[in-house]
Amino acid sequence: MLAFLLIVGVSFAMMASSLTNLVSDYLYEQRIRQDSLSVEKLATTLAPLFQSAKTDALQDALVEEGGQMGGRLMIVDEDGKVQFDSFGKLCGMRLELPEVLAILTGGQSSAYGIHRLSGGESSLTGTAEDEYVAYCASSLIGTRGRLGALLFVSPVQEMMQSLSAVQRQLLSVFVGVAAAALLAASIFSRVITKPISALTRTIEKMGKGDLSVRVKVRGSGEMRHLAESYNAMAEQLESLDRSRNQFVSNASHELKTPLATMKILLESLIYQPDMPSELRAEFMQDMDHEIDRLTGIITDLLTLTQMDSRQMELHPEAVNLSELTEETLRLLQPAAEKRGQTLTCRVVDGCRLMADRSKLGQVIYNLTENGLKYTPDGGSVTVTLTVEGRFAVLTVQDNGVGIPKEDQAHIFDRFYRVDKARSRETGGTGLGLSIVRQLVTLHHGTVSVDSAPGKGSTFTVRLPMDGKESA
Fold it and tell me: Sorting pLDDT into bands at 50, 70 and 90, what band is 470?
């Protein structure tokens, strides 16, 4: 901020100096042009009088013209001596002024200069005080060549005072403008840096682990957009952190349950050596079931971890989704018959798309298995495959227990269970629908559910047949 204010101050100082120099140069040029034209014209008029030695006429002309021009006129010969003086005081005196020497020895036709004279030197202008004077010299040219020089001495004290006054005024104006600009820049800088400082402090707090901090949204434009974007990002990070913690908690609980069950069964076997063989075999079967359940949870967790880390790659190929659906349902037919359930397959012929065959098979399997699990014995599950425009639409409909409205937004969350006790009885891991959503998303598709308690559920998967992301 200090550097910015310093740059502003230096910039205004340079502007003030430049403008002052421009004004000074303009005044000098105007004065030089005016005096030079007058003296050159007068030199042309006086040269014949000086050459013909008409002293009285020449002296009278000098006095008259000097009075009209508001200064002092002198004629200097080739040796630098004053031959005529409108004031009549310096006749016979040798002048060694730079402007005179520039003409007599330098070969110039005219010369101009401004000097500050002390009281002793200012007798040239007839005053006894220090003052600024201008010397304007022009060569006197006669028929035989150069005769000498005409010197015009004029006071420029008023011009210099005016210039000083202008410089002071300009300086005052620029000091005022610079002060106002610095004040405005300081305020503007604070307006800009204050929200940035607040954002920096918030980021530092977030870096220390506090994901609940937010930036106060103020103003408009880019700073408001920055604050809103940051708060949205912080909200996502906090939500992700909550989801991660919940996931770890749920995963730990799901893994702990079969382990605890197996521990109880093993302790029973260890501490009851005389247990009947039938009961022992039953306990061993229960442990085998829990091991299968534990293996399923670990497998599903590894699948989700690969998806989250983007390590899972699709291997697209031309897939006949109609045949794949029928093949998958044949695998689940024995499980449906065991519970007296009706598994119906209604597919359109020749539905083909570019996709990963095994992963689409897992989507169909998980959705159908989920429908069978949550449908009572003797119920029905219908799997339908149709084509709508450029989309293949797969629906899995059951007449099971259904899902309450408030739970439908969460059923694709990991380990989410509508009825936790009944869900564990079915042996599910609570990850199947989450895997379905991830796999469908990888194929640029969508999955949704429509359900009501006691009326069953319908899951709908829409997959683009051209492999492009759905709008």
Answer: low
Sequence letter at residue 458: T
In whole numbers, what is the pLDDT of the chain averaged over residues?
81
Q: Where are the beta strands (DSSP E) in 36-98?
A: 72-77, 82-85
Q: Give the CA distances from residue 339 to residues 9, 376, 411, in Å, rounded to whole numbers and listed in that order.
A: 88, 8, 24
CATH number for the domain including 259? 1.10.287.130
Best CA proximity match to 71, nearest among 158, 161, 162, 152: 152
Structure-token pair, residue 26: 């303009």
Nearest CA among 119, 122, 124 for reference residue 137: 124
Report if residue 172 sits inside a domain.
no
User: CA 137, CA 40: separation in Å to the nearest integer?
Assistant: 8
* 268 and 144 assigned to the same domain: no
What are the start-end ranges of the E strands in 19-130? 72-77, 82-85, 110-117
φ, ψ of residue 469 to 5 degrees: the values are -65, 135
Instruction: Over range 198-210, report the average pLDDT.
Output: 78
d(CA 318, CA 356): 8
Backbone angles phi, psi at 214, to 5 degrees: -135, 155
Instruction: Quick: pLDDT tens for 61-113.
Output: 999 998 888 889 999 999 999 999 998 888 989 988 999 999 999 889 899 98
Mark whether 250 and 378 lie in a shared domain: no
- Give the burial class of 249: count Cβ atoms within 10 A of its Cβ; 0-12 exposed, 13-18 middle, 19 or more buried: exposed
Give me the domain span that covers residue 273. 221-307
Q: Kindly state the greatest CA–CA separation across the chain.
A: 160
Both tokens assigned to 291: 């091991």
Q: Which has the closest alpha carbon to 196: 233, 226, 238, 237?
A: 226
Contacts of 405 (CB under 8 A, 6+ apart): 452
Residue matched to tokens 């640029």: 444
- Give the closest residue to 159 by CA, choosing from 129, 137, 125, 132: 132
Residue 449 within a domain: yes
CA dihedral defined by 36, 41, 43, 46, rounded to 10 degrees? -150
> 0.70 cut: is pTM over it?
no
pLDDT digits (tens, 9 = 90+) for 276-306: 888 888 888 888 877 877 776 677 667 666 6
